Amino acid sequence: MILANVRSRLTREDAALVLALVSQHGAEARDRAEATLRERGLEALLDDPLLLPALLETPRGAHASFPLFAYVVVRQALLAGGERDRVLADYAASVLLHFGLRDRAQKVADADDETFETLAGLVEQAEGPDPRRAFLVQAHLGNYALWLSGMFPDHIEHRRWRRGGPGLRYFEQLGRRGFQLAAQHRLANEHGLALLFAAAAARFPVLRAALTRISDAVLFPHHHSPERLMRQVADEARWREPD
User: What integer best gives the mean pLDDT of the chain?
Assistant: First the structure.
């Protein structure tokens, strides 16, 4: 099951790289970074606005581990939208790692043989008779909707405009529903996940927009279309909506 555990996977080597990247602009930057690490810990240093550009634009940044890179890009994207919850950043980064590197986007668990091409298939099984599988399906409905709408919004909007497919709001609604069901499941309480899933449901549009910013900037920076422009304008407006 996907958990908010990316930060716990960071190593001493990751911490050393972060310190080196943030310190590369001179003695003053190094002293400030060392003070931050000493007084406030690695998590505070991971929030440094100099870190993400260094990861993306410097040769040394190419040596970052996948967990470090995933957490920093997600955390910085969420901070840009005003979301400061580190656990949500950790969870979204974990979704990114599992679905991006482990080819698990269409399966509710690593050992599960059934694959799901659509969200509708997950909805059909979200309240099945097996409590454990229903819980996994509910969480996966949220995760899969977040992955598809966050990382591939242009594909969704293209299908909506050209073929009449469902738009991003549909994916957000089903994603929130999946996380809401998972938060209410007794297994969520037993495993300490109820608050996380409830927060993911409440902040789903913000999580989705953060992943979309990553997709636009890192994966598909040179793609331009009317659909993307309209979607970006709508997303920017929603970033500014009061809670």
Answer: 90
